[in-house]
Structure formats: C-alpha cells, structure tokens
C-alpha cells in the first residue's frame, strides 16, 4: 500500500474516534506519543489530513468520513503534490491552484456551500464579508510575531541570517509560514513575541487612551499569559501595571514570561470576576480581553467549527456580561475600559457593547471588528469606552 493511502486510512480512524472534548492538537499529540512507529514525516501528513477534515466545518457533514476527507484535502491543498494519487482521474485533472476553481469542481459532485463551513454564519458581525470569511477557513493562517521596542534590527538580522522567509507588515509585525521554527532563532518574549496580527492591532486602541497621561494605572483583568499586557507595556509609556486572571496556573506562566520580557514592576492577583468580586482600587485603563468562543481564531483550531454548540456561545456571552459588570466599577473618572474578544459573533461583541451602554454610564469612544481573514490572521473585536461621569 502506498504511504499516502496509509496516512489517509490512519487519519480516517483518528477522526472516527475523536469527540472534540480535548483540542485536536492534544488528541494527536497523545496518539503519536502512544504510537511511536510514526516518524516525523508520518506525523506531519496525518496531522495535515485531520486538520483538513475539520476545515470543512459543518459543510458536507452527511458524507462518509473517507469521502469527506478526500473532498476536504482537495479543497485545502493549494499546491499539487503526491497526495493527488488518492483521487479518481477526473479529480486529478480538475485540480487547480485557484481555490474558487476547486470549489466549483466540488460543487459538480456535491451540494457544497462554503457558507456552511461556519456555524451560525448569520450571527457574525455585519462588518464581516460572510462568504469570504467562511472560505478563509480552508486556508491555514500564518504565524505572526511582534518585534518589541528597540529590537527591530536584531530580529531582522537573525531572520535574514537563517534565511527565513517572512513579510514585514508595517514597522514591527512579521508574518511567517506556520511551520517556521522561530523559537530556536529568536529570544522570544525578550526581542519579539508571538502575537497574531489582529491582536497586535489592539495597540491602535491603546494609543488612543492614556498616552498623554503618565504615569497611568492599568489593570489587565483577564491577563492569561500576558499577551495584551506586554503590548500595553510596549505601547504606553510608563504605566503602573496590574494583572489578574481566574487561573493561578496561568498567572504563574505570565510571571515566567514577564521575566523573559524584562518586565519587573507589576502587581498580580487571582480573581473570579464572574462573582461579586470588588476591587478596592480604580484604574485609568481596564483591559478586559474576555473569555470567548474564540470563533475569530477557528482557522487555527478548525475542530471548533465542527463541535461548537449554540449553548456554548450563549454561556460565553453571559460570562462576558458578568465580567464587564464587575470591572466597569474599577474604571477611574476620565478613565477607559477596553473590551476585547477574539470572537466574530454579535452576541459576544456588539450585544455586549449594547449591554455596557444600557447598564453603565460609560461612553463608547470607538469599536471595530479587526478583520484578519483576508491576511491569513485571526479576526477580533475591540470596543473602547470612557468613564465620563461627573461628581
Ligand atoms: C482571551 S483570554 C485572555 C488572553 C490574554 N489577555 C492575552 O492577550 O494573552 C481570557 C482569560 O480570561 C480568563 N477568565 C475566564 N473566566 C474568568 C473569570 N470569571 N474571571 C477572571 N478571568 C477569567 C481565562 O482564564 C483566560 O485566561
């Protein structure tokens, strides 16, 4: 049996047994750890096949797994390769590097609608071009890094010396192929951070906050391992930073990361903001990068396209409202709240903005969908509010 057929059959078995309870990356990691017979090339091909399968999201769900996998592979591969041997002649002949032509061919075989890839596509923000967005899930996103202040030349020289191909977007954002191994080339977190293009664009919101008001107090209330907090330190001069999260383990990771990033002066605490937590302090800027469905990042975790439920999205929306209700009380007079998600659903974005407007006196300054799907990046949402209350 040829290698591709073997990879294909293994992927079919893995897909049959996968139930979406753990991330696909973890599921495959465990499988490969238990099946040492697969070398690195095998792992790469089998992983690629499984990811392709889930890139089809909810489309063609009625097809048997093997047929659906063949269709997904045909749609997702943007270059000819040995994998084409798996196909009947008419498929081989019809293959084209243009995705739209591949879609048109698949439509001669099955009732394939690209819009069906994305769960509840009608519920995504109006600013999103729905068909383009849904189709973008057939393509693997790029890897993005942000060069930290003062390290531009150092980073560029290291990438050039190793002949890594990259694209510089603006001054400090670098797009790389997803397979690039940059952690062995760059001192990550010190000179550059791995951060999606749209996430880097949160700097545009930060710059319109407390830039003229220094030193200012900043609370990143859903800090995780500190992606937005490091961005705030790099973007805003001389801030007094506080970070918190509900998970102690992630704050531990943040501390390790901050050490590498040479960020030494900051406060941390652990808090569940969905309870009636009350901060004794107020801040000039509260960054609320809320827990969310992550639907703007599902081109990186396409299994979510397949397994997400409406109930889950509703749970996130309810949690977001609870968290913002808690943290708005900690915004100083004249201070700001920056609400962020990496979701595309209105319920987690515009509806939460409306909720804040209805239930608080904060004023909306600006909000926007940060579209990444046309540049192989994530799509995010950000809304900046100001506490204009008097007295
Ligand atoms: C989208 S992530 C934050 C990402 C981070 N700001 C960054 O840029 O890397 C959301 C975070 O909210 C935290 N979270 C979830 N529920 C929470 C709650 N009830 N109170 C506080 N934090 C919570 C999660 O643990 C998670 O780390």
TrEMBL record:
Task: Quote the InterPro entries the UniProt record gives.
Answer: MeTrfase_RsmB-F_NOP2_cat (IPR049560), MeTrfase_RsmB-F_NOP2_dom (IPR001678), RCMT (IPR023267), SAM-dependent_MTases_sf (IPR029063)
The residue range of the signal peptide is: none
Q: Which residues form the active site?
A: 342
Keywords, ordered alphabetically:
Methyltransferase, RNA-binding, S-adenosyl-L-methionine, Transferase
Q: What are the GO BP annotations of this UniProt entry?
A: RNA methylation
**Protein's UniProt keywords contain Ribonucleoprotein:** no
CDD domains reported for this sequence: AdoMet_MTases
GO terms, molecular function:
RNA binding; RNA methyltransferase activity
Q: Which family does it belong to?
A: Belongs to the class I-like SAM-binding methyltransferase superfamily. RsmB/NOP family.
Provide the protein name: Fmu (Sun) domain-containing protein
Name its species. Answer: Ilyomonas limi
């Amino acid at each position: 049996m040829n290698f591709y057929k073997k990879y294909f059959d293994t992927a079919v078995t893995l897909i049959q047994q996968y139930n979406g309870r753990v991330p696909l990356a973890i599921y495959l990691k465990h499988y490969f750890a238990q099946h040492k017979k697969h070398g690195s090339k095998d792992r790469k091909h089998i992983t690629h096949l499984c990811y392709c399968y889930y890139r089809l999201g909810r489309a063609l769900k009625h097809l048997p797994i093997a047929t659906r996998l063949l269709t997904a592979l045909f749609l997702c591969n943007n270059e000819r390769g040995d994998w084409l041997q798996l196909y009947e002649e008419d498929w081989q002949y019809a293959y084209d590097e243009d995705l739209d032509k591949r879609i048109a061919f698949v439509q001669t075989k099955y009732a394939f609608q690209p819009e069906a890839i994305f769960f509840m596509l009608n519920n995504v923000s109006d600013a999103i071009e729905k068909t383009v967005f849904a189709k973008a899930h057939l393509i693997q996103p790029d890897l993005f890094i942000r060069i930290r202040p003062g390290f531009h030349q150092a980073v560029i020289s290291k990438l050039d010396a190793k002949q890594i191909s990259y694209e510089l977007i603006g001054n400090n954002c670098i797009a790389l192929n997803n397979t690039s191994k940059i952690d062995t080339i760059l001192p990550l977190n010190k000179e550059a951070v791995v951060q999606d293009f749209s996430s880097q664009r949160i700097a545009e919101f930060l710059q319109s906050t407390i830039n003229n008001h220094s030193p200012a107090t900043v609370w990143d209330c859903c800090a995780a391992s500190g992606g937005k907090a490091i961005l705030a330190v790099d973007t805003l001069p001389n801030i007094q930073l506080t970070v918190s999260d509900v998970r102690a383990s992630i704050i531990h990771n943040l501390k390790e990361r901050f050490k590498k990033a040479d960020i030494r002066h900051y406060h941390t605490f652990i808090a569940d903001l969905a309870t009636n937590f009350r901060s004794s302090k107020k801040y000039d800027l509260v960054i609320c990068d809320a827990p969310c469905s992550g639907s703007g990042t599902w081109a990186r975790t396409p299994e979510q396209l397949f397994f997400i439920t409406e109930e889950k999205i509703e749970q996130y929306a309810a949690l977001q409202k609870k968290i913002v209700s808690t943290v708005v009380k900690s915004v100083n007079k004249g201070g700001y709240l920056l609400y962020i998600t990496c979701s595309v659903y209105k319920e987690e974005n515009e509806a939460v903005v409306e909720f804040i407007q209805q239930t608080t006196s904060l004023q909306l300054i600006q909000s926007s969908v940060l579209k990444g799907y046309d540049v192989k990046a994530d799509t995010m949402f950000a809304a900046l509010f100001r506490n204009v209350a008097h007295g």
